[in-house]
Fold:
Amino acid sequence: MKRIHALAVAVLLAFAPAAQARTASGSLDVKWSEGAQDCKAHPEPPLQVHRYNATTYILREDLCSTFEAPFMYLLVGQKRALLIDTGDVADPKAMPLAKTVTALLPHGLPLLVVHTHRHMDHRAGDPQFTTLPNVQVVGYDIDSVKRFYNFMHWPEGVAQVDLGGRVIDVLPTPGHNETEVSFYDRNTALFFSGDFLMPGRLLVDDASAYVASANRAVAFLKDKPVRAILAGHIEMTADGGLEPWESQYHPNERALPMTKADLLALPAALAGFNGFYLQSGKFTMINSLNILEVGGIGVLIVIAGLIWFLIRFFRRRRRARLA
Structure:
């Protein structure tokens, strides 16, 4: 069966770019596993795979395997394939990511593994790939990212990864994390945004960098077709609320795709961010470190006030005794 699938992919790619015009569209009609209230009592398969089209796959780690439930994307070209992110679970027995990915590829096709950014929930599965033949895993630190894509003036510029009959544009989008990049697939007009833009909490590490990234992304995509924006997670409900933090049960989860209009609205929302927490339209923006710092300062002020009160109290008692 795998040989038949590989032959079909090879035939489709052999006639690029003519075949690309026919296969660029795909299906996003998928019901992702909702996890479970009791994962031990109701275990789920660890990995779900959705075939968008013959050369594009969406993979997701199950909520019962990790509350992060990250998405990964496999794009197949004529000369090599591209895997975007490796998820949150390292153990191949618990999460057979590499085995699943290699089974989807035409036999012998080289694989390039990249990351949207360096956070562990997007790279924990890297060790499953590092010893495989015909696989290159790109480093996740900022120097490796700059060097591999040849970004000479980070975060400015756009790089390209040529898969053979399929070119992927790589756009620096730091702000959530300094290493963040997003990917635009010219073949499908899909934009893979990682945690830079997602239906959930936008965790802001560097607000000014985030605004600049949003403006660059808008400028890059403004005149390009965008069939859908596909992110690294879903944290929202179908009615626009947020799923509880670390929840492993999403019975009313919204669909994965975001739109070009969502991206176009992002710069204005970020420009109004107060540095701590803000809900603006569809976006919920949070800077956890700033909140913790302010909370810590508040605790210190309370402690200092309590110490000052106790000192004054005991001084008065001492004076009263001496009198």
